[in-house]
Amino acid sequence: MFRRPFIVLCALPLLATGGCEKDTPEPEASESKKAEAEADPDKKDEAPAADGPKGDAQPAAGIGVEAAAMIQSATAAAAAAPHLEHDNILGHFMMGNAVESVKEIKEQVAPPAQAGFVDVEALKSLASMQMGERSMVAINIDLNEPFGCALVDTDVVEFPVACVVAYKGGTEALVKDMGAKDKVADAKGHVAAYTIEGETIYVDALGDDIALSNHPDLFAQAKDYLEANIVGRADKAIADFELMVYPNAAMKRYADEVEDLGKLFADMARETPSAPKDIKKTIEELDQFAVGLGLTPAGAHFSVATHAKPGSDLAKRFDTTYSGRMDVDFVSKLPMSTFAFAGMQTGEGILENDAWKQAVTSITDDIAKEFDMTPLEMRAKLEAFIEEESELYTNDIAMGMVYEPGTLGGLVLEVGKKTSGRDKWKAWSETFTVDSILPKEGQEAIQWSFGSSDTTVEGVEIDRWTIALTPEAMKEAGSDPDFERVRKMWPDLTLRVDRAELDDRVIFMVAPTESDTYMKSAILATRDGKTIADHTGWSKLGTGRSGLTALYAVDLAGGVDWLRPLLPPSDAADIPSPLGAGLDDLTLVMRHPAPGVVSGSFNMSQELIDQLRKLAEL
Hints:
Blueprint: H1 3-14, H2 31-39, H3 67-72, E1 89-95, H4 98-108, H5 112-115, H6 120-130, H7 135-140, E2 141-142, E3 147-152, E4 161-167, H8 170-178, E5 192-196, E6 199-206, E7 209-213, H9 218-231, E8 241-245, H10 247-253, H11 259-271, H12 279-284, E9 286-296, E10 299-308, H13 313-322, H14 328-331, E11 338-345, H15 354-367, H16 375-392, E12 393-402, E13 410-417, H17 422-431, H18 434-437, H19 440-443, E14 446-457, E15 460-469, H20 471-477, H21 483-489, E16 495-501, E17 505-511, H22 515-525, E18 548-554, H23 556-563, H24 569-573, E19 586-591, E20 597-605, H25 606-617
Antiparallel strand pairs: 1-3, 1-8, 2-4, 3-4, 4-7, 5-6, 6-7, 8-9, 9-10, 10-20, 11-12, 11-18, 12-13, 13-17, 14-15, 15-16, 16-17, 18-19, 19-20
Helix pairs in contact: 15-16
C-alpha cells in the first residue's frame, strides 16, 4: 500500500538508473578513498577513540570506520553508527555515489558479456528519451553526489518521505526543466510543487542540492536530518548503499501494522519451546539497525550494524555476549590443513545473561525425557557441567575443519586452558557409558569406549574415545548400495574423539581416519610448526582490527578438495573448477566496537567473484 507514492517521490532522483529499485548490490568507496586504503589499509576513517569495552583501543562509533579499508582486510563488519539524532525520522536509505557504484559493478561483478549494459550515462540517455519534453531532468540529475530518502514520523500522509538529490543548476534549473505541466499554482511556501499521478511533490533547496517531499510539512521536519545524516555523512556510511532503520521508533509508529507479527511470534513460542519468546521486545530495544552493500578492490560485502537502546536488556546482552576480544595468536595456531575455521572469544558474562538461561531451559526441557529425567534434574546436571567447564577453560575458542589428501578429514576444537582438567575429564568420561546414556534402541546401534593414555603423540598423552557401530548395525548398513563405497574410504566406520592438554590450550580432535596424523599436526602447529597463518589468504583477514570478537573464514578450494572424494564420481565432476583461492574466499566478521553495539559483515573476495564471473560465461 506504500509503493505508489514512494515511486512517485523517487522518480526524479532515480530516473537515471531506471527506477526506485536496483537488482544489483551497490558497491562502496570512491577511487580516491580506495587509493588511500590500498596505501595504508589501517588508516581508513579511523577516528578518535570512543569509550568501549576494556582491553582494546576502540574506534570512534562512527558508522564509516569500516568502509573500504576494512573490506580489504576482510574485517568489513560495519562499525556501529553513533546514536544519530533522528527526531521525527524512522529510517532512511542512501547512496553516496551511484556513478562510482555502477562503474564498480561493471568492472568487478558483471560478467564481461553483460558489462556493456551496466552504464549510468547510457541509462540516463535512455530515460531522457522516454521523458519527452522533460528529457533534461534525467540528464541534469547528478548521481556523482549523495542522494537518499528519509521516512518521517508523522501521519499526515500514508508514507511520508523527504528526499535529497544533487541537480545541475539546483532548484532553478529543475523548475525550468520540469516546465509548466503538472505544476501546482500554490506551492505553500516551497520553491515549487507538482502533482504527478495524483501525488503532490514539493521542491525545496537544500544547499546546492534539491529536496523533494510528498507533503508541505515534511521538508521542515526532515531538513536537518537530510543535511546531517545523508549529505553530510555519505562518505561514512556503512556502504555505498545503506539502509538505516530506527526499529524502536518504527514499531511505535506502525504498531497496528506489526500487530499480526507480534501474534506470529506468540504462536511460535507456544508451538516450539525453543523458539525465541521475546523477538518483539528485542526489536523494540533496537535503537538503530543499518544494512549495507558494498564493493572495494578486495571484493564484496554485506554488512549489518546494530545499536541497542542504552540501558536495555538487549544492550546488556550485546555486552556480555560479544565483549570478548578474539585472541589472534591463539587462533593462528590452528594447523595449516584447516580449510574452514571459526575463531572467537565469548564475553565474560555470557553465562549470566537471560538469553543463555532461556537456552539452557529450552534444551533441558526438550531432551530431559530422552535421559529419563525431569527437566529440573537435567537442568541441574547441565548447569553443573557448564560451571565445571568454565573453571577449567578460558573464553578463547578456535575451531576448524581440517583435511589431508587421502583421508576423510576431521574437526579440530581448541579451547584456552586455565588449569588442568584432565582428571575431571577422565572421571566424567568413565561414567559416560553407553548403558547409562543411550536408550535400548541406541545401544543396539552404537557402542563406544574410553581409553586414557592409550596413545602418545609428540610426547603428549592422548585421551581417546572410540565410537563405532555395533555388529548388528554394521550388518543392517551393509544392505545400503552406497555402503561399499563408504567402506572403501572408511573400512572400520570408527570415529575417534581425542583430547590433548598443552600448556595454553586443550585440543579436541574428531576424525574418522588418521586421527594420530591430525593430532600431530595440531600439536606441532602450537610449537612453531606450519599453521593456518601460513595458509593462502590469512594475511588478508585483517585480524589486527580493533573490536574483533569473532572471525569465520572458508577456503572454498580446500573445501572442494575435501568434498570431491566423498561424492559419487558423476556428482564430483559437476563441481566447477577453479573455485576458491584462499582463506579470504568467504568470511564472516563479528565486532563489538562500543558498549551496546554489535556489527558484522559477510564478505566475498574479488578472486572468487572473478572465478564466478568466468563460470557465468560458460
